Amino acid sequence: MRAHASVMHLDLDAFYASVEQRDKPSLRGKPVVVGGISGRGVVSTASYEARVFGVRSAMSTREARALCGHAAFLYPRFHAYKKVSEQVFGILRELSPLVEPLSLDEAFVDLAAADLPDLEVDTVTEIAARIRAEVAEVTGGLSASVGLASSKFIAKIASDLDKPDGLVVVSPGTELDLLRPMNVKVIPGVGPATTERLRRAGIHTVADLEQVSVEELVRLVGRSHGTNLHQLARAQDDRRVEPERETKSVSVESTYDTDLTDRPLMEQILTRQATEVAARLKKNGLSGRTITIKVRLYDFTTINRSATLAGPTDQAGAIARLARALLGELFTAGETAGGVRLLGVGVSGLADWIQEDLFGDDTDEDTEPDLPLPEPARRPTWAAGMDVVHAEMGRGWVWGSGRGVVTVRFETAETPAGPVRSYAVDDPDLQPFTES
Ligand SMILES: [Mg+2]
């Protein structure tokens, strides 16, 4: 364990929604929901104004509409989020060479590798405050919550304690005081199933968990999970900040308008996705050892199943075979019985070299679908939220579309809230706007 609070966890607040509010002045201070906003979509991010109404990430958009119908429902603009992400990571990498990205808007930073006079609480607090100010400045006003602690585990908890716009430092030595009263759910890897098992054993808080022997925990939740819980309940976490974790996976996934229940059909979808993943690996000269399938069930439970090969592959056939086998396990376990709304395949544990293919020659027979596959749900041409430009009115964003009409609000991050106009969907004066 470290003697200093030198692990920083930074997490932008309501990231996608905050970028939308920055770029769409009329939405500032208002409920905004970003996600797949068609009939079967899922909420990616809700602004804090929408959270007041109970809207949460991973909830169905239908439910979000029922809770907060007056929110702006927008499709994500990943290019805009990616640009902000690059700006923020630029600041972090200037601070320390050890930055571990967790997602576009979240990272660990090892301050012990930064060029600082010391790592005392006052110093690291000052640094975190400066970083938050820099983030706000380069991103045009976005707020980040930051946690500082002696480990990744505690730093991540800390950044969440005073969200949004928070800065929490957990002084070394006080980790357990913070942790003990918390629900076991605060521990990474403790999801609904583990929580339920622990609850039945009378274990609710981390303090309860701390009383349980490692043998008993292993009996309750299995060997690796049990040992892990035993350590984390004592705030023992010596995982390093790992900068090389960046972009080490290639994956493809699709959401479907109708729940999938047919196993051959799903196998063929996975096979097609495996072909796409393999093509991308080859294009980038990559190969990977771990094959993962992602399955989102009708009730939004998301299941990931992985298997690791002895050596890396970039072969569609090998990836598809393993993906189908993993799906088979879910079928056997009865997990897919209620229907599947999203399927995906990914390859991680990437190496930037190609090893000889352990599975021999790749065959085509695996990768040619012979069933008519359903089309994944698509976003409309004029998707709510997208950037557009009009010959006379200039830049704006799609407020909504339907019945041959698209409605646009003309405003950008640099203008005040602007006027709304409607056009025919095929009006040649109106075009999608893409930054060159
Ligand atoms: Mg965030």
TrEMBL record:
Q: Which UniProt keywords apply?
A: Cytoplasm, DNA damage, DNA repair, DNA replication, DNA-binding, DNA-directed DNA polymerase, Magnesium, Metal-binding, Mutator protein, Nucleotidyltransferase, Transferase
Its biological purpose is as follows: Poorly processive, error-prone DNA polymerase involved in untargeted mutagenesis. Copies undamaged DNA at stalled replication forks, which arise in vivo from mismatched or misaligned primer ends. These misaligned primers can be extended by PolIV. Exhibits no 3'-5' exonuclease (proofreading) activity. May be involved in translesional synthesis, in conjunction with the beta clamp from PolIII.
Is ATP-binding a UniProt keyword of this protein? no
| Cited Pfam families | IMS, IMS_C, IMS_HHH_1
Example GO molecular function:
DNA-directed DNA polymerase activity
UniProt subunit comment: Monomer.
Gene Ontology cellular-component terms listed: cytosol
Under CDD domains, the record lists: PolY_Pol_IV_kappa (cd03586)
| Descriptive protein name | DNA polymerase IV
> Quick one: a GO biological-process term for this protein?
DNA repair
Task: Give the Basic and acidic residues compositional bias ranges.
Answer: 237-248
Which organism is this protein's natural source?
Nocardioides panzhihuensis
Q: Which cofactor does it need?
A: Mg(2+)
**UmuC domain segment(s):** 7-191
Detail which positions bind Mg(2+). D11, D105
Q: Which residue intervals are annotated with compositional bias (Acidic residues) in the record?
A: 360-369
Major site of localization recorded for this protein: cytoplasm
